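Per reviewer request, we include the raw input and output of the structure prediction for the construct analysed in the revised manuscript.
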Amino acid sequence: MCSLCGILGSNEHWTDAVARPGVFTRNTERVDRSRERAKRVRIASRILTEFGMTLSDWQGSSFLLSTRTGKTEMVEDLGHLWPLAEKISGRVCDPLSHALIERLEGGGDV
């Protein structure tokens, strides 16, 4: 199960590219799209904090992944986030690891 949205499946299901009922659709109003995008960024950034990185929305079209040391990379969609996070951090970043999920559950809801 995905720790980002609670849906069982591949990591592409919560990206902008795929519309799922109740999660995100391109047919929703612009305000709803912005709100959902901001929520996904907060959730992903909270997880990335455990790996020493942050994610921010960049003008509503891309995402900016940053490390504590100042490295930054543009991410076109959230489906490419985790491979890029591993590349710039130089270590495995598993958002579905059991230990990480337990730590995040103890920290409250996003």
